[in-house]
Fold this protein.
Amino acid sequence: MKFGKILGFLAAVLLLIGVLAVLLAVGAAAGLARGEITLYALQDSYDGYLSIPEEYPVSYQIELPVSGKSTVYRVVSGDSVTVTAEGFVTPAVQVWYWNGGIGSSWPTGAENERVEYRYNFGASVVKATIDESEYYYSFTVTDYASYYAQSIMQEYVQANITDTMSDIEKLYAITSFPTQYIYDSRYSGYTSMIVFGGGDCWASTAAILYMCDIVGLPAHIRYAANDFGAGSGHRNAAVQIGDEVYIADAGYYSPRTFSVKKESYGFSYSVSNGNATITQYDGFDSHVTIPDSIDGYPVTAIGDDAFWYGESYSGQIVESIELPSTITSIGKYAFFATHIKEITLPNSLKTIGEGTFGDCASLVTVDIPSSVVSIGDHAFRNCTSLSSGQTDFKIPDSVTHIGQYAFYGCSGISGSLTIPASVEAIWMNAFDECAGITAAKFVGNAPTVGDSIFGTRGNEFVIYYQSGKSGWTTPTWNGYKTAVYDPTQEISLSSQSDYSIKTGKIDGERIIAGVSEKTDCKTFLSSFENTNLVLCNADGETLNDDYNGYVGTGFKLKALDASGTVIDEVTIIINGEISGDGEIDATDRMILARFLAGWEGYEAKITNKKSADIDGDGEITAKDRMLLARYLARWTGYDTYFK
């Protein structure tokens, strides 16, 4: 019995060995990874200051686990290593030849030409092919100088920062670290500062940021050239501790000092005549509210480049901004090229400066208040998402000047543009590359204009002006087709109306938005100034005075002249009211769900597709279905989509 058990055990072992052999053979044929190897390299600029210790490998000899008739080695990924025919791996080197400040990858033979050897740090993979088997070796070439500098800072943190310290104590200890090195404008990174013994403010800031990351303090680089006494390229660090922002600075002169200062609300500011101007945002919030006063000073202005400096240097993304009612001016390029999607402009604002919102490609809507007098050059240039809520775009009645390229490239604006009588001048290319603007309606006399204010347009683009206003010419004005219009014949909302007349995203149709479900005809018609109006249902049938149903999606409101001719027309859209009966209910949800599921015949049951585009993004998607379902289920907050 014992002998039989032994034989059985041996058989099992042999079977296991056989299975492993098969797996190894399959694995070898498919290609086996042989681990990761780190190699170290040091740029020759550190010669005489730093060397790589022997225990840090600078090369590697590949030893294959099997032998065969032929072996081929090849780098198959990355450019940080080279490999010989014998499998000897070393860091890849680029040779540069310098003559003065001009470098070349080829020798010129010039006198005193300096040769520099550069390593390509990073990851690479070497494949070894032996007969039918493949083996892969992963290599990472590490900059030993950076590794050394980081080790110095890690050791400093371990020796000087403890868990019992407060965050502000940790920040003081971190900020004092660079003071052991002299100020030297030749070196701008923490590696060169530590290796050579000196560096500039960029180097000290980089060290502070690295150590803040080690101890878990949120921090980012800060543009500091506007600080008192600072040079044009000065940088320091903004560090968040709780709800406060601190500025950590390790100096910009010798002997080196350091400072840690709390910044009110995360804003830098200047004071003039008792009023504060926000000069920079250094905080960490994506949704920013600017206070109406700061340290007792009323905030009346946003300075030049204020948010552009903060975002372009720190990388901190700001998506929305709310300005206080004390703001009267916004400086040049204040929000230039930032990621803001929305901003609240107060009624106290008088001027929008040059380039204020230029290249803000994410900015969707902005309501220019009626207090604004001047819109500067390039103010909204290339705001490609700007749409003013899908409505016909209207310049406020207070504006007198529109600068050159002010709305250039605002391709999201669609429908008709209305220019009020207050506008005295529009400078060149102000609305160029705004293909969505199909017409421009001028209320007053012809303003002074620059070249190509609307760019190059065909006959489909028309400028409308009122009869009796001076400066206009027919059939063209400054190269654009013109026509006369009578403002008394247009459909016009009363001042008390909550509705708006817009241009829909899906097909460009003029619509009335803001109508609630279960609105009766009398209530609806009271929102308009016109007296000669006709209401028709979705089938085009005129509704008589005895109609006692609700106004529904797809209904049309028409304005008639004295002869009964239709001179203006808009379509009623009620968000989520898809069937056209004036009520939002389970029927609408069912129609939308089956339409999205591709059920035959349900597209025809949608009275007007704009009513199914509940989130207003120009598409009918599962998100619209979700919004409708949650509204009907009375989820909190979802009613805002249906007002």
